[in-house]
Amino acid sequence: MRVLRFAQTALAVAALSLSAPAAHAAGPGLTYEDQNWSFEGIFGTFNNASAQRGYQVYRQVCAGCHAMNLMSYRYLEGIGLPAETVDALASLDEKTIINDEGEQVSVPRLASDRFPAPFPNEQAARAANGGAYPVDLSLIAKARANGPDYLYALLTGYSEPPAGEEVMPGMYYNEAYPGHQIAMAQPLYDDLIEFADGTPATVDQMTRDVVTFLAYAAEPHMEERKQTGLKVVGFLLILTVLLYFVKKKVWADVEH
Questions:
Q1: 105 in a domain, yes or no?
Q2: What is the average pLDDT across 199-209?
Q3: Considering its fold, how many domains does the chain have in total?
């Protein structure tokens, strides 16, 4: 009986671990609409085409201010890019190394290298952005409550302030940001970039794509984790059934 109860408990724990709890409130009086992302739920997977476009948005729009210090080029293979393409993308950026003569030289980055930071340090970043520090985007989709929906709402939430509401100098009105005043100017506009696959670059499309990429960057092994979890649940289901019949067989001749 104890073994059977253990199996049942383990089954319940494994099922709960397949998906993280959703949080729809992100601050006082702020809630964000559920966008029904493809990667949500226990069977959710990343849309590789969307994630690839999202990387293009990050590289061409976001990377000028926002670092992704935990993201390596090699992880781009996880969204369907061939290794040769990843190597080529990495080589477009340079890094500084010390050569055999003790001199600093610039060389192309490798697929194993992390994305370059746009600024050498926090002070330089603040100086270039009016005192505001652009947040690192490596884990942003997991670091915020209901992260993907929050990011979508934030990137599409720019508008003119309501009548009578004053926006401080250097700030911009955003309906989704706590306090509604944000130091980051609206980053996305229709047709801002040209997608390699020909998809129309609307604000909505670019936002969905870059959020998908940021969700992947925050948890590149999500699909593997879910697949492992499903296998564990399946194994525990079979184990539970087998233990039930073993119990019935062992106690069949015992009077209760």
A1: yes
A2: 98
A3: 1
- The predicted-structure confidence for 36-53, as pLDDT tens digits, reads as follows 999 999 999 999 999 999
The answer to pTM > 0.85 is no
Q: How far apart are CA 141 and CA 51, in angstroms?
A: 13
Burial level of 56, CB count in 10 A (0-12/13-18/19+)? buried
Query: Torsion angle of alpha carbons 230, 236, 241, 245, nearest 10°?
Result: 160
Longest dimension (CA), the chain: 87
Query: What tokens does 113 get?
Result: 């290298």
Residue type, 227: Q
**Residue 16 falls inside a structural domain:** no
Q: Which two tokens stand for residue 31?
A: 């809630």
Determine the structural domain holding residue 105 and report its residue range. Answer: 72-113
- Give the DSSP per-residue string, 242-255: HHHHHHHHHTTTS-
C-beta atoms surrounding 233 within 10 Å? 18
Beta bridge partners of 25: 31
Contact 34, 25 (CB under 8 A): no
Q: Is 234 inside a domain boundary?
A: no
Phi and psi dihedrals of 155, rounded to 5?
A: -70, -20
Does a structural domain hold residue 76? yes
CA dist., res. 13 & res. 28, Å (int): 32
Reference 22, options 151, 153, 136, 142; nearest CA is 142
225/228 Cα distance (integer angstroms): 5
β partners of residue 182: 172
Q: Are 90 and 72 in contact (CB under 8 A)?
A: no
